[in-house]
Amino acid sequence: MGSLPMTLPELNFPDSSSKQSSINETTLLNLFKSQQNHLNFFFNNLNISQTLAFTKTLLDSTGTVFFSGVGKSGFVAKKISQTLVSLGVPSGFLSPVDALHGDIGIVSKRDVLVLFSKSGNTDELLRLVPCAKAKGAFLISVTSVEGNALAGVCNMNVHLPLERELCPFDLAPVTSTAIQMIFGDTVAIALMGARNLTREEYACNHPAGRIGKSLIFKVTDVMKKQDELPVCKETDLIMDQLVELTSKGCGCLLVIDQDYHLMGTFTDGDLRRTLKASGEAIFKLTVGEMCNRNPRTISPDAMAVEAMKKMEAPPSPVQFLPVVDHENRVMGIVTLHGLVSAGL
Fold first, then answer.
1. Which of 33, 127, 163, 248 lies 20 to 30 Å (CA to CA) from residue 214?
2. Which CDD domains match (predicted)?
3. What pLDDT digit, counting tens, does each position of 24-78 carry?
């Protein structure tokens, strides 16, 4: 590949005696445009047949897909491996140096080893090749320089077209690593589709993330139970239940009968409205007289994200939902604060 004309804006680098440097919006914008042009060169010249063969090899692997690289390419290789793991693909990063000191023992003939290197002449990777071949692994090099040594000794090579580095000296690996990352992550998503990974399966691999929680957590996982419930009877006086109303942190009372069936709810908002309308008469009013007889409820087996949607539904949002079974018996209560605290 012949050298191409420099397309970068001219930068004024300080000499060794100067501590001053400057940059402006035009210079920065031109750098981004230049990087965009270099990436477009990659997109326009990538060999899709090579990429398809690479993707199918990873898809058909019955073992682990290992990735390796040195320096910046090593960081990219590790990230792509982690992406595949998150998609349920058995994968791992193999340090070429550590591999030569025992870690190669994890590699078997069922595995694929992908070697990332811009030049394809990285000594550490070239020393790793015969050791990995002796273990029977299938070797794939992913490189950007034509006719490199690594491509010549691996079972398969994928060429990543590189116009030049964004670096004005064409040295710092910033464009080459960008196209490595784009290539690897795009292949990962292709594998995701080929393996028919569902949203639920993806969520199971990310249980601590918001997506995972929304698809895994049920109401029973986030609701208050047993002694945490602010319950009372219909015949209880409102003023006798103020402590119960305020101490459980739910902002409401769950009005139940002797068999724990839900009869209604009474909120702190109901308390204010009743006090305003009744004045001193509130001392004689029972909870049953003023409670909401038709509150929104939810099943303990419903998804927690469904509870969130139900709370926000028209005609007006609510801060809690009583949790009831199929016989309308109170099982718990889920609050908006509890859902937010759970990361939903």
1. 248
2. CBS_pair_SIS_assoc (cd04604), SIS_Kpsf (cd05014)
3. 999 999 999 999 999 999 999 999 999 999 999 999 999 999 999 999 999 999 9
Sign, Cα dihedral of 325, 331, 335, 337: negative
pTM of the entire predicted model = 0.64
Looking at the domain covering 36-197, what would its CATH class be? alpha beta
Q: CATH number for 219-342: choose from 3.30.70.260, 3.30.413.10, 3.10.580.10, 3.40.50.620.
A: 3.10.580.10
C-alpha to C-alpha distance for 294 and 324, rounded to whole angstroms: 13
What is the residue extent of each domain of the chain? 36-197, 219-342
Whether 160 contacts 148, CB under 8 Å? no
Contact indicator for 280, 252 with CB cutoff of 8 Å: no
SS3 assignment, position 288: helix
